[in-house]
Amino acid sequence: VEIICVGNELLIGKTLNTNSQWLAKRITTLGLSVTRITVIGDEVKSISRTIRKALARKPSYVITTGGLGPTFDDKTLEGISEALNSRLVINQNALKMVKEKYAKYAREMAHSKFELTSARVKMARIPKEAEPISNPVGTAPAILVTKNNSTIIALPGVPSEMKAIFEESLSPMLKTSSDKTTFFEASLNISGIMESELAPLLDQVMCENPRVYIKSHPKGTEAKPRIELHLSTTSEAVDTAKKNIAKTLVQLTELIEAKGGSTQPRKNKL
Amino acid sequence: VEIICVGNELLIGKTLNTNSQWLAKRITTLGLSVTRITVIGDEVKSISRTIRKALARKPSYVITTGGLGPTFDDKTLEGISEALNSRLVINQNALKMVKEKYAKYAREMAHSKFELTSARVKMARIPKEAEPISNPVGTAPAILVTKNNSTIIALPGVPSEMKAIFEESLSPMLKTSSDKTTFFEASLNISGIMESELAPLLDQVMCENPRVYIKSHPKGTEAKPRIELHLSTTSEAVDTAKKNIAKTLVQLTELIEAKGGSTQPRKNKL
Hints:
The structure is a homodimer of 270-residue chains. Chain A is 42% helix and 26% strand. The relative contact order of chain A is 0.12. In chain A, a hairpin with a 7-residue loop joins strand 10 (213-218) and strand 11 (226-235). In chain A, helix 3 crosses helix 4. A 6-stranded mixed beta sheet of chain A has the order 2-1-3-8-7-6, sandwiched between helices. Chain A has a 4-stranded antiparallel beta sheet with strand order 10-11-9-12, covered by helices on one side. Chain A has a two-stranded antiparallel ribbon with strand order 4-5. Chain A has helices at 8-11, 18-29, 44-56, 76-83, 92-108, 118-122, 159-177, 195-208, 238-258; strands spanning 2-6, 36-40, 61-65, 88-90, 125-127, 131-133, 142-147, 150-155, 182-191, 213-218, 226-235, 262-269. The mean pLDDT of chain A is 91. Chain A has 270 residues and is of the alpha/beta class. Chains A and B meet through helix 1, helix 2, strand 2, helix 5 and helix 6 of A and helix 1, helix 2, strand 2, helix 5 and helix 6 of B.
């Protein structure tokens, strides 16, 4: 899975990209792996080029966030359309979704009627081959379009809308395509051993446990070391995953304590 | 400027990428613009390909974070070296920096002497053409290497180390190359007008103020709209930047209030 986040606000550091972390965590937990996250600005050329490059790497999914709304700076659909050599057309299902939302708002706000302005119709102009996905929280529909063996999914940038669509419509689909692979992780907090002393121990343990990926996260300094070791594995059988992690944890603990370090397991979750 | 963040922990959603937001904000404030942020895993091939693709877009700077430490999963220097068709060599200045750090730790921890293990020497093995940059907080030096007209700077992933090196060594350099361009921004909080009603007003104001970029950030829902408008501009003269933003703010406020919306300026900072 590749994630592409569209938005100048991310490039000027105005907004912290919590969307990509949320998506990465959910996708990983569903048993798929995120291989790349790209953040680009609100420019059609930049969006279309980035999507083309992503498709060339043949991921199962390209998930974009941002740029689906009614304003001029919402350019993701135009970018996707250009990347697919397609064109934007008013999708009748999408238009129905947008109309129903505004009719609902009109009732809630005790207006008699809402105009279907061009800014509102814009949200229903999607690439010709795409299908809209209903947005249970906001107005702009998400879209889904498949090209060769990659499925492009465009989600809104507003976190509550992105999360709601993901949970309602994407999570079941991604779960199916993950072949029931389970992602399993554990953490070990270490003190009293420097990261540079730990390095050869990790080499040894990784070599003997090739299914387990271990990453060290220094939290203190080299001189007053506190290190979090993060262990992760994927496996089709939950038992195998758990066993691999448990075996690696025991081995690591022994080696670290033999070097004078102390360890505290931190969490151990499925 | 392109930012490349290296780390599996970012791709599995374990870590929130606060580094890229911090860098993006600092770089923007210094008058340069960030055009792309890419997050990739701890793989030499992936790092070298991503750096090559970035260089092909001819940015002034490519700044990487993460992957400079002593452990096997710290692969950024190998990736940069491969991207430059270079090779890693022990840099004597870098080795001196690493040695001095460990000698200091040895004194602090009342050890008589620290071994210069291969894991520690690893941090001084940098691409042949690169220079090390001293790390005032941690052990691993940052590095700087220029290829054609792009300067690649590799910073550590530990936020305190990344920030310290940026402020001490990079900030003065980036400031010089930004030609004294100033980035200026302001925000306007709006209620009582839907984003889809706002869209044509923004088109009009943007068209009349081509130097000012306006982006709408919906905070409520379409039916109960609260929208933050973010205005930004860059200019060589602070006065011009301020004037452009002020004029745009006045125009926007008038148009929005004429449509029944209300506005509260939020902040107005240089």
